[in-house]
Amino acid sequence: MTDYLPKSAYLNVEESLSGRRWIGPGVERERMTEALGQATGLPAAVCVVLAARGIAAEEAPGFLAPTIRDTLPDPRGMHDMEVAATRFLRAVERRERIAVFADYDVDGGSSAALLIDWLRQMGRDATLYIPDRIDEGYGPNVPAMEALAADHSLIVCVDCGTLSHDPIAAAVAKGADVIVLDHHLGGETLPPALAVVNPNRQDEVDAPGYLCAAGVVFLMLVEAGRQLRESGKRGPDLMAMLDLVALATVADVAPLVGANRALVVQGLKIMARRARPGLVALSDVARMNEAPRPYHLGFLLGPRVNAGGRIGAADLGARLLSTTDVQEAQGLAAKLDALNTERREIEEQVRIAALDQAEARGLDAPLVWAAGEGWHPGVVGIVASRLKDYAHRPAIVIGFDGDDGKGSGRSVSGVDLGASIQKLAAEGLIERGGGHKMAAGLALTRAQLEPAMARLSELLARQGAGEGGPRDLAVDGLLMPGAATVELIEEIEAAGPFGAGAPGPRFAFPDVAIGFVKRVGEKHLKVSFSDGLGGKIEAIAFGAFDSPLGPALESHGGARFHVAGRLEVNHWNGRATPQLRLEDAARA
């Protein structure tokens, strides 16, 4: 339930400092918020979240305390699940050689680590294979699959494989069985694998399509555990592995709905125990000094795990997540941290060039896109995400090496980018492509670029991309600085976790005076503001100097402002204080 009122500017903000128009909740949602408060006794700010999700009063207790038992779907409800688990267990029992072929991102690395960890606890090992992003590209390829099939009787493809007909056929021809555990959108036909477990197969009806690949792997291990118990045996403790599922779910921007909410909530608790050497080492190099939250997974840990696949050795992330050796974990974490720093520098160069190009085309179209020679294929996805956030439109960024281009895209809620790109491939407008609703990849030639982007823009427009104001900022409610306490923020966070598909509430603080302002680094700004009634709160505006927001607040000249953002608890030097992650402001 969204129910914002785009026709009436919230707080009369038609154009904010960053050029956005503010919109507020509609009458129906405000009534629901009020009714929830009366029925549950919960704070109004919490009821704002519940109303936004369409949660009725009787559903509130279960929503605020999601459990795996109540939300996890039955694995056997998915096609090929029993076959996959049975074949996997047979390989374990017969001591067959097992290979795990994984994608090079966080989801692929976490999925591989789940299988490796489970097998290790069963006294077995597995060969890890992750393709090089530049030399091999995404997913299984014929040479790699033939090589693995030569000395492995079972190959498990995780976070890839659903569209890999020829590579899987090549492995099968060499005598190997192949299991695919994936979540990317399936085609009209499936590859000749023994089992393709994917909630986004076209013949799945009620499957949990919101799961990332690690969630699918977890469900397969749940089914394997059930089969073990039915035969009088016992498998590893799956709950202890939820830290990997949570990391993958958040970092892969899977929507935090249904079972994903419970998987992340419980996974964060497991991660807080600091039992997995790889995540401990990664948390330490990222200088995490508090209990993990989705923010840490998405912005501190995830990018570092991804850095190996983007610009370094593709298997570094999966090796880090699966190792049990503390010293090895520390060494791998240090490498990934250094690669992440290098990645940021490359990304910034591409981001500036892509933004200039996209702005020259205009940011009001259904699709925002940019393409350039020599843009590193390891950062185009991140830059596409930046463009998507900036323009509030689906975005594609493509790097060319001569005539060959590799691109990546990110979408907005309600617009299925993966299906649209898959349609381009079916129409012959690109060489290949696919993905899922929120993210996708593609390969094309220079001659295909303009026609493909025009057709993609047309397909996305049919889904509603580009409608409404290009940069509307949805505000969920009003707060005064004095009401934004640590206790209130903790109550709001109980309605989380917040992330893709489940954004945290955004509050506006009206008519406040700016206190101190301090630039942090080159792009960020720390601010304090007060309401003149004794209420005061500090705020941090990340990337403020990428727009007019930073300069305007830095030289405020005593003016009063409406400010908007999301609340969080700031932990510093052993103290916990409320903080606003400031996203926008407007002159009052």
Give Rg in angstroms.
24 Å
Number of helical stretches of at least 4 residues: 20
Number of strands: 19
The proportion of residues forming helix, as a percent range, comes to 40-55%
Placed side by side, the strands forming the largest sheet appear as 4-3-5-6-7
> Averaged pLDDT, please?
94
Which spans have pLDDT < 50 for at least 5 consecutive residues? Answer: none
N-to-C CA distance = 30 Å
Could you tell me the strand content as a percent range? 15-25%
Main sheet? 5 strands, parallel
Silhouette: globular
Structural class: alpha/beta
Task: Please provide a written account of the structure.
The chain is built from 20 helices and 19 strands. It is α/β, with parallel strands linked by helices and 588 residues long.
